């Protein structure tokens, strides 16, 4: 009897193991096929990771993405879903969404433009981005761009409103473009130079992420540089792309826009007036270029190595920093002709290690350096006269020491 029961028991055990294996889900989590993808993004907000199973960066991101999905997908108070699309299986979906590398992360919102994510791939950054996009959806108002070192990054949402009034020099670029990469540091330097001039903005827009804007303005190559006045393109820049040439071009384009075409005789009169214009008058109309030295983690020690340097440690979002900026800029201009005195600044949101090194705990913080060494913290008034008097006093002390 026992011999007869043994095969039956073994068979039951085998069936149980097979069923357990079938119930076990080793497949990737939250992966959409074509039908699921099209249905989902048309109904609610979705943050999609387009990936390839063999991609190393995708494998590294997957645990973070799954953690976000586990945290927020079941949460009905958060109207967004984290999901994935395997581009080796769903080639059509990835092609239609212009996926050219892995992983590609895009945020879909019904009735809003699709936004490509290009930030850090950690839990906090991805989470913050999701909530920012959801807040924008609730407000239903295009968000104005924020300048980073004077450079504005534009999008399809805010492009028209940004260039609607005033003067704007815009770079239309593509991240993969070699000429764009070469221009990037020059463009950033140009933006920094005009960062305190309220009559002009220096901007850029990624044509791979915001294609409709670039198509509208007939951008056929990268980089394309266009000058806007009151929402209209008035010129396309085609000269040398070095800093001096670009700076001179911006200065030449800063005149008030003409509202109507004057008669030929009036044109000749105006040309004569321009010819008679003195160099002094021309200098009055030239935009004021920044004299504040921009320090980074790489050049900080070199930047404070000579003479006396007053360094402003700041954060772009800080209200007190924004209030101080014009006076600090004026200080830089006023001490520009005095050898041994320098005004410099460090963005602590970018160069955290430098700010941590000098124990910067609030913004703005101003520290004085002499010959590369920290001397003291500036704690007097923040007017131009206060800071200028302080610098002159310290310069006299330095000159006495050198005698």
Automatic annotation (TrEMBL):
- The protein's superkingdom reads Eukaryota
Q: Name one GO molecular function term.
A: protein disulfide isomerase activity
Checking Gene3D superfamilies in the record gives: Glutaredoxin (3.40.30.10)
Name the UniProt record assigns to this protein:
Thioredoxin domain-containing protein 5-like isoform X1
Q: Where is this region: Disordered?
A: 251-288
Q: Which GO terms describe its cellular component?
A: endoplasmic reticulum
The UniProt keyword set, sorted, is: Redox-active center, Repeat, Signal
Q: Specify the signal sequence span.
A: 1-20
User: Where are stretches of biased composition, namely Basic and acidic residues?
Assistant: 265-288
Gene of origin? LOC110978307
Annotated family: Belongs to the protein disulfide isomerase family.
Q: Which residues form the Thioredoxin domain?
A: 1-130, 132-255, 268-400
List the residue ranges forming a coiled coil, or say none: none
Classification lineage: Eukaryota, Metazoa, Echinodermata, Eleutherozoa, Asterozoa
Q: Which GO terms describe its biological process?
A: protein folding
Q: Which organism is it from?
A: Acanthaster planci
């Amino acid at each position: 009897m026992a011999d007869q029961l043994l095969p039956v028991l073994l068979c039951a055990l085998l069936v149980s193991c097979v069923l357990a294996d079938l119930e076990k889900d080793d497949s990737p989590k939250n992966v959409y096929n074509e039908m699921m993808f099209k249905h989902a993004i048309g109904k609610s907000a979705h943050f999609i990771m387009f990936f390839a199973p063999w991609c190393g960066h995708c494998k590294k991101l997957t645990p973070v993405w799954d953690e976000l999905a586990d945290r927020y997908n079941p949460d009905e108070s958060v109207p967004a879903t984290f999901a994935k699309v395997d581009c080796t299986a769903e080639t059509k979906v990835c092609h239609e969404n212009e996926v050219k590398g892995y992983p590609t992360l895009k945020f879909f919102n019904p009735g809003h433009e699709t936004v490509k994510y290009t930030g850090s791939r950690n839990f906090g950054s991805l989470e913050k981005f999701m909530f920012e996009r959801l807040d924008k959806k609730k407000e239903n108002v295009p968000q104005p761009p924020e300048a980073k070192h004077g450079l504005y990054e534009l999008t399809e949402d805010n492009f028209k409103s940004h260039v609607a009034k005033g003067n704007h020099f815009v770079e239309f670029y593509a991240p993969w473009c070699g000429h764009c990469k070469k221009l990037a540091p020059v463009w950033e330097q140009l933006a920094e130079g005009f960062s305190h001039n309220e009559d002009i903005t220096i901007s850029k827009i990624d044509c791979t992420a915001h294609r409709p804007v670039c198509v509208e303005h007939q951008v056929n190559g990268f980089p394309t540089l266009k000058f806007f006045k009151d929402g209209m393109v008035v010129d396309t820049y085609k000269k040398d792309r070095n800093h001096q040439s670009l700076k001179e071009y911006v200065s030449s384009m800063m005149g008030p826009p003409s509202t109507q075409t004057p008669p030929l005789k009036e044109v000749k009169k105006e040309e004569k007036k321009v010819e008679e214009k003195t160099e002094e008058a021309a200098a009055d109309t030239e935009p004021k270029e920044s004299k504040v030295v921009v320090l980074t983690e790489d050049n900080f020690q070199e930047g404070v190595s000579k003479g006396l340097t007053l360094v402003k440690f700041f954060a772009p979002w800080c209200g007190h920093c924004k209030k101080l900026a014009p006076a600090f800029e004026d200080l830089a201009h006023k001490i520009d002709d005095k050898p041994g005195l320098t005004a410099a600044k460090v963005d602590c949101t970018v160069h955290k290690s430098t700010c941590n090194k000098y124990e910067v705990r609030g913004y703005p913080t101003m520290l004085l350096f002499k010959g590369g060494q920290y001397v003291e913290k500036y704690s007097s008034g923040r007017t131009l006269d206060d800071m200028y008097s302080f610098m002159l006093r310290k310069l006299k002390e330095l000159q006495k020491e050198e005698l």
